[in-house]
Amino acid sequence: MVIKKLHDMGIRSEHAYLAAFASIGLSVATWATSLKAEPVGGLARADRWGIFVGEWAPTFFGLGIALSHYEQQDGTLTASVHDLREQKERHAV
Q1: How many CA atoms, within 13 angstroms, populate the side-chain half-sphere of residue 13?
Q2: 57 neighbors 20 (Cβ within 8 angstroms)
Q3: CB contact at 8 A, 6 and 76
Q4: Which residues of 25-40 are buried (b: 16+ CB within 10 A; e: fewer)?
Q5: Minimal CA–CA distance to 80: which of 7, 6, 14?
Q6: Are 70 and 4 in contact (CB under 8 A)?
Q7: What is the C-alpha to C-alpha distance for residues 47 and 91, in angstroms, rounded to an integer?
Q8: In three state form, how does the secondary structure of the chain look?
Q9: Per-residue pLDDT tens listing for the chain (93 residues)
Q10: How far from the centroid of its chain's Cα atoms is residue 85's Cα?
């Protein structure tokens, strides 16, 4: 199972979510850099670079969700998530 192996390697859902947001930022930066650095390719080339890097974000978000589900089953959720869940349960009662 890929998710278990990632978890065993120390990768947590928070890491995947951070990678997804970094990918979004990198996509914009790559687009802008390509647009300025390569006037020959123009807008079309910059768009291709930005889209290429931007396509990573959904994969990282998906991995984050899968890791989060695994962490819930495994009992290795971070303390802050446990605290939020307990607060929600207290308010529901």
Answers
A1: 15
A2: yes
A3: no
A4: ebbeebbeebbeeeee
A5: 14
A6: yes
A7: 47
A8: CHHHHHHHCCCCHHHHHHHHHHHHHHHHHHHHHHHHHCCCCHHHHHHHHHHHHHCHHHHHHHHHHHHHHHHHHHCCCCHHHHHHHHHHHHHHC
A9: 899 999 999 999 999 999 999 999 999 888 888 777 766 667 787 788 788 888 999 999 999 999 999 988 877 665 566 666 676 777 776
A10: 22
Structure tokens, 89: 């349960």
Task: For the chain, give the longest Cα–Cα distance.
Answer: 64
Q: Indicate the Cα dihedral angle 62, 67, 70, 72, nearest 10°.
A: -100
Location of structure tokens 């390569």: 38
**Residues in the chain, how many?**
93
Whether 44 contacts 50, CB under 8 Å: no
